Amino acid sequence: MKKLALLIFYTCLVHQVISQVYLADSAKTRQRFAQLNLGLGFTNTSAFDYTRTFGVESPVLEQSSAFNELRFIIGGTHFWGHADFEISIPVIKPGASKNTYSALYSHGVTTSAKLYPWSIKKKAIRPYVGISINSTSYQQLGPDSNSIGNIEYRFLPRYHAGLSSQFGDYIVGIDAAYLSNTDFNYYTDPININQVKLNPWTIGVSIKKSFDTTLPSERSWKSGYAQNLADSLGRRGELNGLSLAAGFSAVYQLGTSSFNQENYRALGDHRLERFIDLGLGYYWHRPDIQVNIPFRQYTSELSAFNASQNIQRMALGIEALWFFADYHGFVPFIGPSVSYETMDVEHRSLGNNDVMFRHEQISYGLVFGWDIRPNRLQSIVLRTNLRYIPNLQFSDPASGLSWDMDVLEINFIQLVIYPNRIGKFR
User: Fold this and answer.
1) Tens digits of per-residue pLDDT, 292-319?
2) What gap in Å lies between CA 413 and CA 333, rounded to an integer?
3) What is the value of pTM for the model shown?
4) What span, in angstroms and rounded, lies between the C-alpha atoms of 420 and 379?
5) Fewer CB within 10 Å, N or C, the chain?
6) What secondary structure letter does DSSP report for 290?
């Protein structure tokens, strides 16, 4: 359902934008500063070694098969083709055969930044280097619930180098990437651990279609009409108004759990989830400030060796965004975030008492990011926002052992609509 909702959302988004042929050598106007990119990527990872303990008398070193992943890419080129920020989401991941022993390794949601010394240009090959935050997942499987291990999530930096070229509205690329720190210990049963050595190299290809929301306003900006109209309407308060926002977010849960470390080490820690970030806000034009009420809800799940743990988080907040600069339509913002948080915790394990409780708290954090805003008349704006919330902690009432759920939420492409401007200012 999450993937279906994501595809529906971005299909609607595409219908709101106008495709253009991106020309890196055209005039560096505000309207050409950034473009939205949507596409698909295909990655290949070679085989890796793992140790199996179930179904054998002594540990056996085995080798997995190489695997491929199909990924959905959401991102955008910035700084007139010199930078590319994107998030890629696995759509088709490796699977395992039933009633067999196997190991699954997957690259989850990846957030990346790539830099081009020479800007992307039609029918020209351009090299790039980049870095990404990669969420890997690893799991060993067996034919019954006693031999199914935890999904081990890890956040690792990955270093990229590759080539891209543009043909019409399409950007085609080939990428080689190296993932650091790929050796780690894994619980192959509730007590014993063995070392896993994952392959650090991946190669991939991608194709992305470029869209533009801002090029139609270039003529009015160059003539001075758009700026003069914005100044006049701003003085009369007609650009103040409500905003609606929605976008796909990835949440990185950065803390650890003393409850799991003490009682269920094989479960590991809660790490990565995805959700739709919704917002209702009000914008004031003259101070360039927006107050936003974001709503987030998702469930984080762990399971291993007849134990399972679910934490459902619901957060309703209020935050103030101060837009403090404007570089050719790249408008950064920063502000405080306050949320009312509820955590519904459910832990079940065979032969032990279940743990179920609700935790409520007020959390304080920081929100920052940028809008792509070629002028201040736009009814639709594309926003990137990141939200960091530390000290999101709660404890089991019976044992006093805790979960630390400090989170970093990353929303690369959020659609922000100002209803009172639709169809009025062209």
Assistant:
1) 999 999 998 888 777 888 999 999 999 9
2) 15
3) 0.72
4) 8
5) N
6) E
- CA torsion 373-375-378-383 (nearest 10°) is 10
**CA-to-CA distance for 172 and 423, rounded, in angstroms?**
35
3-state secondary structure at position 175: strand
HSE-CB at 383 with a 13 A cutoff on CA atoms is 32
Unique residue bearing structure tokens 């080129």: 77
Tokens of 47: 């085989």
What ranges do the domains of the chain cover?
A: 19-211, 236-421
Helix, strand, coil shares of the chain as percentages rounded to 5? 10, 60, 30
List the one residue out of 332, 247, 321 whose CA is nearest residue 282: 321
CATH of the domain spanning 236-421: 2.40.160.20
Report how far residue 26's alpha carbon sits from residue 81's, in angstroms, rounded to the nearest whole number: 11
Q: 5 or 230, which is more confident? A: 230
19-211 belongs to which CATH class?
mainly beta
Joined together, the tokens standing for residue 152 give 């081990």
